[in-house]
């Protein structure tokens, strides 16, 4: 019964919810992530879902809250990029901070997962072992993710003309 109720709501309301979210996000990828969170929340709270056409209004309410969380996350990433820029993550400590925003631009092009793990190390000062505990993952998983994120960040920095 639970899954059938959810499936009916998903089939009936996915498109309008996606369109609503897409108009309020910067990309299709962001919209897809938000909509996935909306329907994950709906699945978890399917017993609270109203019947009939009231369900879409309930889903819009969930979407508003998920969009607000998404916007907060985006602001955190923007602040992190500004901090990275302010601390001068160039290859030598004697170089001046990046006045034209190349470091921030390189950081912004990273996937959110890469931004998150780099931020946990650079801003929060966590070790890979601490991150592993926080994520509930093996330390080796975190070390591999961190290595890959650093490699992608270095590639993006090189594309901006910053040698690392």
Would you kindly provide a written description of the structure presented here, covering whatever features stand out?
The protein has 164 residues and is mainly alpha-helical. 73% of the residues lie in helices and 0% in strands. Helix 1 (2-22) runs antiparallel to helix 2, helix 1 crosses helix 3 (54-87) and helix 5 (112-122) packs across helix 7. 23% of the residues are buried. Mean pLDDT is 84; it is low at 90-96.
Whole-number radius of gyration?
20 Å
Order of helices and strands: HHHHHHH
What is the makeup of the main sheet?
A: none
The number of strands is 0
- Distance between termini? 56 Å
Number of helices: 7
Strand content: under 5%
**Uncertain ranges:** 90-96
Helix content: over 70%
**Overall pLDDT score:** 84
Shape: elongated
Helix/sheet category: mainly alpha
